[in-house]
């Protein structure tokens, strides 16, 4: 058995936590109505869940309640702690730092909310936010929430084509972008890329206005009548903006995630249920207190940034840190300096960051104090026992509990984890389901696996943070998540449950690759590669990577034998998806392993790319069994 790490007590699960689990099991309706009291409601909900995983599938939480998310994150705290720090923004350049109180954050959100209303943005309209890690990103999200607009935060690394696809699908009427973003020594042409994206939308573009945030102050092309200076527009407005009162099931935001088909999925999260879940999980998982300085290093364009940079900590009245730069730029240990300078007490980051820090000399982390830390967290992919122990020993000084967390864009917040001061952590294990989270393991036939075992990770009942649907495609929502194991939400992940009930995530069982916490659909990569007309066919797979967790590898079948320009594939992926998705390796091959029906056997490609050549399994179902040996030889040659 793996040793449990729990500095506070020898008991692996606290009495408080056990009581919460039992209450949630005994009467879930009463339990979740009690948790709703975390928020301020204009109309108190009388019902918790009206969700149903059968038939057409319905996800509905607190449907008779009315509230405003921004009001919950700002106004009530302005009443009691107006001068407390709400947001600490630190730029990557020395001296670039701003501490924003709850009073000031409220005023800045209200000014932008008034700008958006003046531009004709109404309740239910979509606003696209395309910003680096600057305070205006958080302000923009909360301003949308304040006026009832649905925010759509878009990753700064998306290509123009990737942005255009999401702009068209969401029907965004206003875009908030940067002039030029900074990322270490690089400059990212945000406005230019967004201009190209809007042009690519053509007649399907719904964008009326573009607000440009001066991140670097660079001169950018401004289209008269459409493009507006963010700074100039907010300066015209008053710091008071009446909140739009929303039904709990009204959408708060859309967030796009890669799927196993080429088209990204626009997940729709509710206002009431999501905010309850964000508040509940932030407090319970991290033992969060209003006095905490909470730093989640995720980009706000991902669900982790939505829930644990913005909504969870601010709903609970804490202080958040937003840092613009990279972990080790301009010198190793930059993030440890940010912790010390801002007295961060809870630090939530990814295994990729932890592994990168492990590669540096131990003196880098040991030369920093880090005495303010009391809780550490990991998110994005399973963390190895080695990285877990290093994080605990070197960063936490053998005194801070480490909470590894399993969850998804679809779940809205943490689902399986250890909990600081409540559930012991085991290096490498995700942990236990949170109270009210009904995890089940299913075998290939859809039957429950009891006690110890390994299978498909499913959820038997809904939870408040669950996405309600896919934007304008509820049937795809039903098909994607509720048909593999009828009556259950299927996560797409496999998991193992040990004798103590702890869960260990074994990885994706669908065609999604997790690269440094970025979920990349293989079909999206293959669609981009297909734009290179020198390619007949391609297959993208994920392989283990000691830094990124998984790396993306693409097998390419060229139209003509002889010289093939692999760099063209990289350019196609960068243009069609984004530079973050460029493959780690491209293998040029004459054919791919396929069944007689023509289906590519990706399992074999993963094993070949990872040089895991034992137990290749039954090859007799392949149309050409000899292709496997040929691919093994070619991959070895191309690896040198």
Automatic annotation (TrEMBL):
GO: which molecular function terms? acetate-CoA ligase activity; AMP binding; ATP binding
**What keywords is this UniProt entry annotated with?**
Acetylation, ATP-binding, Ligase, Nucleotide-binding
Please give a single GO biological process term from the UniProt record: acetyl-CoA biosynthetic process from acetate
Instruction: Respond yes or no to whether keyword Acetylation is given for this record.
Output: yes
> What SUPFAM superfamilies would the database entry show?
Acetyl-CoA synthetase-like
Gene3D superfamilies linked: 3.30.300.30, N-terminal domain of ligase-like
Q: Does the keyword Nucleotide-binding apply?
A: yes
Q: Where is the AMP-binding enzyme C-terminal domain?
A: 524-599
Sorted alphabetically, which NCBIfam families does this protein's record hold? Ac_CoA_lig_AcsA, PRK00174.1
Q: What is this protein called?
A: Acetate--CoA ligase
UniProt source species: Acetobacter pomorum
Gene for this chain? acs
């Amino acid at each position: 058995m793996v040793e449990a790490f729990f500095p506070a007590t020898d008991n692996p699960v606290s009495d408080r936590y056990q009581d919460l689990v039992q209450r949630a099991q005994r009467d879930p309706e009463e339990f979740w109505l009690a948790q709703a009291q975390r928020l301020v409601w204009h109309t108190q909900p009388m019902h918790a869940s009206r969700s149903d995983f059968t038939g057409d599938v319905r996800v509905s939480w607190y449907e008779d309640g009315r509230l405003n998310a921004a009001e919950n994150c700002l106004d009530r705290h302005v009443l009691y702690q107006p001068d407390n720090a709400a947001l600490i923004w630190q730029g990557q350049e020395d001296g670039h730092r701003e501490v924003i109180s709850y009073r000031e954050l409220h005023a800045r959100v209200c000014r932008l909310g008034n700008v958006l209303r003046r531009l004709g943005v109404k309740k239910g309209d979509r606003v696209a936010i395309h910003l680096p890690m600057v305070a205006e990103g958080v302000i923009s999200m909360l301003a949308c929430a304040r006026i009832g607009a649905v925010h759509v935060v878009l990753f700064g690394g998306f290509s123009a084509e990737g942005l255009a696809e999401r702009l068209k699908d969401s029907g965004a009427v206003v875009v908030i972008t940067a002039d030029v973003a900074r990322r270490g020594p690089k400059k990212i042409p945000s406005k230019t890329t967004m201009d190209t994206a809007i042009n690519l939308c053509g007649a399907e573009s719904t964008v009326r206005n573009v607000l440009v945030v001066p991140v670097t102050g660079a001169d950018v092309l401004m289209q008269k009548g459409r493009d507006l200076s963010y700074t100039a527009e907010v300066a015209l407005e008053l710091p008071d903006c009446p909140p739009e009162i929303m039904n709990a099931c009204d959408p708060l935001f859309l967030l796009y995630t890669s799927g196993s088909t080429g088209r990204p999925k626009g997940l729709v999260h509710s206002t009431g249920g999501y905010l309850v879940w964000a508040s509940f999980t932030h407090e319970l998982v991290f033992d969060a207190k209003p006095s905490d300085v909470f730093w989640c290093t995720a980009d706000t364009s991902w669900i982790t940034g939505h829930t644990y940079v913005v909504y969870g900590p601010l709903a609970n009245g804490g202080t958040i840190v937003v840092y613009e730069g990279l972990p080790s730029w301009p010198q190793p240990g930059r993030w440890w300096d940010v912790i010390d300078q801002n007295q961060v007490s809870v630090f939530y980051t990814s295994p990729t960051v932890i592994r990168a820090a492990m590669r540096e000399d131990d003196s880098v982390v040991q030369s920093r104090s880090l005495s303010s830390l009391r809780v550490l967290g990991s998110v994005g992919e399973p963390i190895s026992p080695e990285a877990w122990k290093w994080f605990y020993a070197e960063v936490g000084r053998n005194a801070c509990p480490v909470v590894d967390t399993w969850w998804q864009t679809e779940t809205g917040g943490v689902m399986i984890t250890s909990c600081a001061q409540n559930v012991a952590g085991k290096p490498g294990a995700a942990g236990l389901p949170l109270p009210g989270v009904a995890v089940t393991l299913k075998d290939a036939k859809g039957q429950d696996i009891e006690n110890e075992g390994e299978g498909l990770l499913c959820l038997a009942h809904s939870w408040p943070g669950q996405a309600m649907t896919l934007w304008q495609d509820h049937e795809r929502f039903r098909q994607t998540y509720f048909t593999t194991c009828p009556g259950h939400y299927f996560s797409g992940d496999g998991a193992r449950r040990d004798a103590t009930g702890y869960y260990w995530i074994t990885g994706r069982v669908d065609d999604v690759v997790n690269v440094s916490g970025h979920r990349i659909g293989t079909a999206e990569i293959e669609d981009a590669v297909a734009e290179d007309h020198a390619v007949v066919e391609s297959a993208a797979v994920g392989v283990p990577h000691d830094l990124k967790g998984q790396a993306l590898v693409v097998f390419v079948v060229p139209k003509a034998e002889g010289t093939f320009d692999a760099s063209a594939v990289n350019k196609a992926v960068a243009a069609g998806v984004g530079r973050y998705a460029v493959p780690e390796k491209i293998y040029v091959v004459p054919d791919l392993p396929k069944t007689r029906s023509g289906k590519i056997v990706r399992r074999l490609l993963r094993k070949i790319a990872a040089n895991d050549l034992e137990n290749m399994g039954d090859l007799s179902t392949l149309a050409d069994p000899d292709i496997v040996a040929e691919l093994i030889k070619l991959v070895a040659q191309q690896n040198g």
